[in-house]
Design brief:
The protein has 175 residues and is α/β, with parallel strands linked by helices. 44% of the residues lie in helices and 23% in strands. The chain is built from 6 helices and 7 strands, in the order βαβαβαβααβαββ. α3 packs parallel to α5 and α4 packs across α6. 31% of the residues are buried.
Length: 175
């Protein structure tokens, strides 16, 4: 089972992913893509970490996500990737179009071959106005394409709105 959970900031994306992982009964590995670029982000990361069960393994991987997923995916595991938009930001800030394209392709090519349950979490940022600056527009374009390509490969796509799941693809799972 592969699932993509999208939503705005504080929409309940991570909480939903964690609830699904907990309910799966599988060993859970949490892939954190954020980097602590400032004190506020460090606090967010610490809060997320404190909210997770202590027995879950956390893998911090800001760039080589597909490789890390392949190393840990197994039939008896549930992998949570939180979050794809932070991962995409890390790649965009490298200012290396080759690395960005290679890592995106590696992720998209790997989805079908990953064993076990995979839950991808990402911010839906393309429901508002077009940003004013070029990097922000590029980010929105890249995120939109990534979400479309990943959604096509996932069994379920859920949009979180005010903590409530709206199912865009697939059926609701009882928790």
């Amino acid at each position: 089972m592969k699932e993509l959970i999208l939503g705005g900031v504080r929409s309940g994306k991570s909480a939903r992913a964690e609830q699904l992982a907990q309910a799966s009964g599988l060993e859970v590995i949490y892939f954190a893509t954020a980097t602590a670029g400032d004190g506020e982000m460090a606090q967010r990361i610490a809060r997320h970490r404190a909210d997770r069960p202590s027995h879950w393994l956390t893998v911090e991987e800001p760039l080589a996500l597909a490789q890390a997923l392949h190393q840990h995916a197994a039939a008896e595991r549930c992998l949570i990737v939180d979050c794809l938009t932070l991962w995409l930001t890390n790649l965009l800030l490298l200012d290396d179009d080759g690395a960005l394209a290679q890592q995106q392709r590696a992720l998209l090519d790997s989805v079908a071959t990953l064993a076990g349950r995979i839950i991808f979490v990402s911010n839906e940022v393309n429901m508002g106005v077009v940003p004013m600056d070029a990097l922000s527009r590029r980010f929105c374009d890249e995120a939109g394409r990534l979400h479309q390509q990943l959604a096509a490969q996932c069994d379920r796509v859920t949009l979180m709105v005010a903590g409530l799941p709206v199912f865009a693809k697939g059926r609701e799972e009882s928790l």
